[in-house]
Automatic annotation (TrEMBL):
Protein name stated in the entry: Etoposide-induced 2.4
A GO cellular-component term linked to this record: endoplasmic reticulum
Membrane topology: Multi-pass membrane protein
Coarse class of the protein's main subcellular location: membrane
Metal-binding keyword on record: no
PANTHER family noted in UniProt: ETOPOSIDE-INDUCED PROTEIN 2.4 HOMOLOG, P53 INDUCED PROTEIN
Region ranges (Disordered): 149-169
Pfam families, per the entry: EI24 (PF07264)
Source taxonomy: Eukaryota, Viridiplantae, Streptophyta, Embryophyta, Tracheophyta
Biased composition (Low complexity): 151-163
Keyword Nucleus: no
Cross-referenced InterPro entries: CysZ/EI24
Length: 340
């Protein structure tokens, strides 16, 4: 019994050590922000897009929040006092003026949010989404990286386009496009349900914050690498397989993203992430995760590093359950209707 307990203890310590090493490697890859400077110096278009993201989200969006908190709100509190002046409570015969001032302050603040911050948030979200795609494309052009798998191994799994060009007809191309669109739609829905899962874990007692941090780390890491995988043409199944098989690495990669915003208010956290996100996208573009993983496998002599973790299992099951409720007509009935 003691020998078995010792063996189990040794295996656990070895597993924790290997997991920590893989996590630290992912964290280190995310912190290689010096790559961003190198890539921007190599590509003028990339420098312009990155500068536009910083100007819109950092200077305008976060600057607006700074002006609101440091100038507008104190001015409103001075013009419409809350009933306390220089540490002494005002002698008012009635509480009506104080309530009126509070109502006016709240109304003016809500008007500022409706007329400025909410439209600016929507404008920033839409424009930043377009810019992130451009930044990833320019970054991959500079780095020459394609995806999480080596180009040689990927070409072995997928026949090259040039070799099969003569054997591919037009319907097949249309079919590939439709499959790609379907995968993008399914990926979007899957990440939406996963985001819902991330949000709900924040309400779990005691361990909710820790779970929320871990799931957010995976979510941002997946977002960062998804641009790279999209341009490489990697299928959704292979992306999820690679991500879940190397969950410790991606948990480490996403941790710096979450650390930068975890303790901030929602608007400030959005603005901060909108500034930092393209930097991590470029870092992911220059990261050769496949080589790092393979080198550790060779070093430790194992096919898997820390085992596969079904990160998207709950989101996938919920999505499949909802899709199964949609009215889909069987093929047999469709063919019978066509025959009639």
């Amino acid at each position: 019994m003691e020998n078995n307990d010792n063996n189990i203890g040794l295996m656990m310590r070895r597993y924790l050590k290997q997991t920590s090493i893989v996590w630290l490697l992912g964290f280190r890859e995310a912190c290689c922000l010096h790559r961003v400077v190198i890539y921007c110096l190599r590509s003028k278009e990339l420098m312009i897009r990155t500068g536009q993201c910083f100007l819109l989200n950092g200077f305008i969006f976060l600057g607006s929040i700074f002006i609101l908190r440091s100038l507008i709100i104190p001015t409103l509190q001075w013009i419409l006092p809350s009933g306390v002046v220089d540490g002494y409570e005002e002698q008012c015969s009635s509480e009506m003026p104080i309530r009126l001032y509070a109502f006016l302050r709240l109304g003016l603040l809500q008007l500022i949010y409706v007329l400025w911050f909410y439209p600016l948030y929507i404008f920033s979200f839409i424009l930043s989404t377009i810019w992130y795609n451009d930044i990833a494309q320019f970054g991959l052009t500079v780095t020459g990286n394609g995806g999480p798998t080596n180009s040689s191994s990927y070409s072995q799994q997928e026949p090259s386009t040039s070799q099969n060009a003569s054997h591919v007809d037009k319907p097949t191309n249309i079919g590939r496009v439709m499959i790609g669109i379907a995968e993008q739609g399914y990926s979007l829905l899957l990440l939406t349900f996963f985001f819902l899962e991330v949000y709900l874990t924040g309400f779990v007692p005691y361990i909710g914050k820790a779970l929320n941090f871990l799931l957010l780390s995976w979510m941002y890491a997946y977002y960062c690498f998804e641009y790279k995988w999209n341009f490489s043409g990697l299928s959704l199944q292979k992306r999820l397989e690679f991500f879940e098989s190397n969950w410790a690495f991606f948990a480490g990669f996403g941790s710096p993203c979450v650390l930068a915003i975890f303790f901030l208010s929602p608007l400030v956290s959005y603005g901060t992430m909108a500034v930092l996100f393209p930097l991590f996208v470029l870092t992911a573009a220059g990261s050769d995760a496949d080589s790092i993983v393979n080198s550790l496998k060779e070093k430790w002599g194992s096919e898997e590093l820390v085992g596969k973790l079904p990160i998207f299992y709950a989101a996938d099951k919920l999505l499949m359950r909802i899709l199964s409720l949609l009215p889909v007509e069987p093929r047999g009935q469709t063919s019978n209707k066509k025959a009639r």
